Structures are given as C-alpha cells and as structure tokens.
Amino acid sequence: MKKGILLIFFFSCFFTIAQITESAMPRIDKKNDRYALMVDDEPFLILGAQANNSSAWPSVLPKVWSAMEKLDANTLEIPIYWEQFEPSPGAYDYSVVDEIIEQARQHDLKLVLLWFATWKNGSNHYMPSWMKLQPQKYPNMIGKDGKAIDSPSPHAQATLDADKKAFVAFMKHLKEFDKAHTVIIVQVQNEPGTWGSVRDYSPVAQRLFEQPVPKAALKPMDVKSGGQGNWSEVFGKNADEYFHVWHVASYIGEVAAAGKEMYPIPLMVNAAVRDPIDAGWPPKYQVGGPNDNVFELWKAAAPAIDILAPDIYTTDTEKYLKLIELYSRNDNPLLIPETHWRSPFPRFFYAALGNGAIGYAPFGLDDKRVRFGADGNRLTDEDMYVPTARNFELFRPMQREIAKLNLDGKIKTAVQLEPIDKDTDRGSPWDREDYITDTTLTFRGWDIDVAFGTFDRLARTEHQPEHPDGRILVAELEKGTFLITGFHSRVMVRPTGQKADNHWNYLVVEEGHYEEGAFVVDRILNGDQTDFGLRFNLPKVLRVKLYERQ
Ligand code: DGJ
C-alpha cells in the first residue's frame, strides 16, 4: 500500500516536472477578426527589440542583453546566419543558436529567430561562402539588360534545396533543444525579394514566364475563368511583378512548410514595404516580398507562413497608420518586427495595439557607439532607450492581460497626429461644456473624449512637447468599467444613447498596476485628480468605474 502511494507520488512529480520543462507549443489563436500569439497557452504581447544585423555573436551578446534591459523588452528578435550555421555543406554548427537561447533564458526573454538565408534585404549576402563561390549552381538573377543583379534567383533549384535542408536541420534542432519554447516565432528569410529588377530575366526564368500561369496563382488574384494564358496575357502590366512575387513566395513557402512539418511553431515573413499611399509605377520598391498589393499571392503560395509583417520606417504619420491598417487583416495578425525607436515614433505602438497587434519591435538599439544625433553628439540613453521603455515599462506587467483583451476585441486606441497649436488651442480652464477634444473612442453606453498634450486642470499647459507624441489606450473591462493608460493626453467621459442626458460620475478611479494577472490598486484618485478629466502627463494605468446618478 505504502509502495503504491510512493509510486503515485513519484509519477505525479515526474509529470509536473515534464510539464514545466516541456511547455505548450507557441501558436496563434484567432477570435472573430482578432488574433493572439499564445505562449505557454496564454495570450502574449511581444514587447520586442531587434538586434543589429551583426550582433548575433557571443562576443556581442552582452551589449544586446544590456539594451534589452534598458528597454524593458520581453522578446529579442535576433538573426541566425546561414553562413555561420552551415560553414561547409551539410555540417551544421548549433553553438551560436544554443548560446543565444540559453542566455535569453537567463535574461527571462523570449526569442524571435530570424533565418538570414537565401534572402537578406533582397540579396544573398548570408549564403555560406561555399555557395557564393559556385554562382553557376547557386545563381543570382539576371536583369532585363542581361547584367547580373545582386539578388538570388528564386528559380534556382539547388539553392532552394540547400536552404530547405539547412532550415529543416535548424528547426529539428530547435525542436530538440528548446523544450521550454524560448523561441516563439521564426522569421523565414529577411525582406525577401529584389531591388533593381522587377524579376529574373535569365533563360530559366524567361521560359517559366512564357508558360501558362499556374492555376494556384490565378485564384488568389481573382482571375475569372477564361483567364488562361502566360503571365503577360493574364496579368498585363503587372505580369513581371506578380511572376516574381509568386516565385519568391512559392520558394519561401516550400522552405517554411518543410521546417514547419519538422517543428510547427509560428512562422513569419517581413516586408520592405512599398509606399502604402503612392506606390509609384513602374515599381521602384523591393519586388517579391509580401507587399500590400500581393497579399493574396503570398497567402496562396506560402500557407505555412502565419504572419506577413511590415517593417515600418516611414516618418510620415499618415503612411505609418495606413501600413498598420493594411497589415492587420482578417487573414493576417499584425506584428511590426522592425521600426523606429526615436521619439515620437513609439506612440505608434499604441496605434498598432488598437489594430490588434500581437507585437512591436524597434530595430538596432544594441550598439550605441555608432549613434549620433543631428547635432553630431553621441545619443544618450534618454534619446535611445527611454522613448520605447516608456511604453514597455508600463505594459510589461500587464502584457498578457492586454493581449487577452485584444483577442476579445475590447481595446481601442488613439495617437496624436499634429503638434499642438499653442496660440489657439489652450481651452478655458473652467469651461466644462466646451473642453478640448481631439478624438473620441466609442464604447457601449459611453464615449471617451481624448485630448492630446500635457494638461493643467482643463487647459493645456503652456509648454507642450515639441513633437506630437500623445497616445491613449482604453479597454472595456465590462460595461462602464475601463482600463485606461496613456501618455501626454487627457480623457473626459460622456454617457451616450438613451442615457446621454443623465448625470454621471466616477464611481471609483483606481491607479494601479498588474501583478500576476490581478490589478493591484496603488491609490484611489479623486478631487483635483479627477475633477478636470483624467490626465496622463506621465504614463500611468487607471481602472475607471462609471455610474449614472438618478
Ligand atoms: C531592414 C532590414 O530588415 C534590417 O535587417 C536592417 O538592414 C534594417 N533594414 C536597416 O538597418
């Protein structure tokens, strides 16, 4: 009998330990049109940062960890170099990837690994030397003028075979080595496609171009029956572009599918995005990657890829917001894997969350030596890390709650678009009826009026931030109860619908933070802190309960 109890005890310990070491696979869940990245079976928000291109070496990693700490990030995006991984044909070197995973665990970070292989920014620069030295076997593309292009051909079977084999070996290793699932996403290639030629004009490519368009490529572009023919006949002026996209996407789709079969974690491809408002013609942008005009081709050619992700470096607010809109689709979760870290760009983190983003990551913060401001001075930590850390410090303790609220479709956000006009837009400090409103977020029974800037009672303060950096996030916890957080903004509340004319008030405004999934109240705000709206001159987290008085 005692033996039996001991055995039960032994087995339950064993299974508990097995569960801890072998946690649930990362995956992507969808509810209505919203997504969540599931890590350890719970929604997870990537508060990320991407390392510089040459930082994935053990000698550089200490700088990377120190930057991650300053940012308060929870996920590091970092390359794995094909040239390092396969220094000679079929001989794989796992030492660097193991080092990265082990050190990431020590720093309590998750990883997005970037497979820099056939394509890196449209070129083949990360191919192993033994491949670069055999250009006949692993060819680059040929331009229309017959000259070589610095971009690998998507029609090179030997390159595809080599990439696929190496990628499967890499994924097999992750499967065996990363039982704790520190790696939550793998990016397959980096900004694939081509600069400087809209397609490959080599004899091999030309032959394919003159053949009928495969049926699989007709359907996604909504070509009606009767649309048979070669690429030019079916797609006219878009033929060259669509042909190249289809073949780059099919190539990557094949690499991805083979890797996913070995180890099914979420896979992503990032795009060097074209101008989302005025793309121009003929294309001067990188052709081949998942641009907004060829989403359907990519989804059809590479179904193993879960996320088509925009690298957003535009400094134009309208274009930035348009890209966010274009990449958050019913068939695609929004993840911004690369973006600016300079103020005021980090406010777009909020814009991304308002569109259901599962993650956001500024690029290249781990090497300060090379960073200089416009005045020629070296940038300080305040310049480099604080703009992003201001967001991440606030969100890290509640990232899972935010990710869950987003999956449930409960979050709305707004960001400041224009600098504040100091002469005309100060408002009256006392006139409650006519308070400044820049935008309104609408919820069941309540409107949330948002004004951007810093506030002193009902008026904006005399000195406003130079750049438009205001941001606000409102999540409906239940009807009439909201989680509100933001920076450089102010919130006023109004009942709507049948109760629009009712008197209302705050039942309670709690300032606090999340700890292990529970909201912890630090203090209750009232009096001057609520009578003039809820002011976010500094970032904070509020839980606000409203009621209508009879
Ligand atoms: C986008 C690329 O994806 C990154 O790897 C990097 O090259 C940046 N551009 C620019 O530094």
Describe the structure in brief.
This protein has 550 residues and is α/β, with parallel strands linked by helices. It is built from 16 helices and 26 strands.
What layout of secondary structure does this protein have?
Layout: H1 2-21, E1 27-31, E2 34-39, E3 42-44, E4 46-50, H2 61-71, E5 75-81, H3 82-85, H4 95-106, E6 110-120, H5 129-132, E7 140-142, E8 148-152, H6 157-177, E9 183-190, H7 203-209, H8 215-218, H9 231-235, H10 239-262, E10 267-272, H11 295-301, E11 307-312, H12 317-327, E12 335-336, E13 338-339, H13 348-354, E14 359-360, H14 381-384, H15 386-395, H16 399-407, E15 411-415, E16 439-443, E17 446-452, E18 455-456, E19 459-460, E20 471-478, E21 481-487, E22 489-495, E23 503-515, E24 518-525, E25 534-535, E26 540-549
Parallel strand pairs: 4-5, 4-14, 5-6, 6-9, 9-10, 10-11, 11-13, 12-14
Antiparallel strand pairs: 1-2, 2-3, 7-8, 15-20, 16-17, 17-22, 18-19, 20-21, 21-26, 22-25, 23-24, 23-26
Bound molecules: (2R,3S,4R,5S)-2-(hydroxymethyl)piperidine-3,4,5-triol.
